[in-house]
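Re-run with default settings, no changes from the original entry. Doing this only to confirm the output is reproducible before filing.
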Amino acid sequence: MAASSSLGLRAGILSLAIFSAFVLAWHIAVQGGAPTGPAMDPEYAKLMGQTATTGKSAMPGPLDVGAKLLEHLRRPFYDNGPNDKGIGIQLAWSIARVAAGYLLAVLVAIPLGFLIGMSPLMSRALDPFIQIMKPVSPLAWMPLALYTIKDSGLSAIFVIFICSLW
């Protein structure tokens, strides 16, 4: 018992040390240095992931990410138009889409499961279709759904439905 808790404590400390090393390496990597030589063309600097004047990486560091996270958590339900919504609103819509897709899958799969379980004929008839469709990845369904349905919200519900069905 004591060896198990000691191992858990050591693993937790090692995880924190690895995480800290990752964050420190990230912080150092995005700092960049003073630009040497002539000023870089702004287009080329953008292509290289740097700002033209400072040589600093265009990728945000952990402090910038933390500040932006706090900003989003302070106002989770803001609505500044169709493409600028708070994280709370986005989370609510996401949970609603998952619930709708899963509910539709339940409404189809449970009766179909009873039918397959009670009828050997239906079981044998539907088994090839199930075996072919079951391993198809959600990443394969999404472009097909977007192309066919042409609405991202409904496409997401369809993908959740079709992947929950099996």
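The longest helix spans residues 87-118. Helices lie at 2-31, 42-47, 62-74, 87-118, 120-133, 138-149, 152-165.
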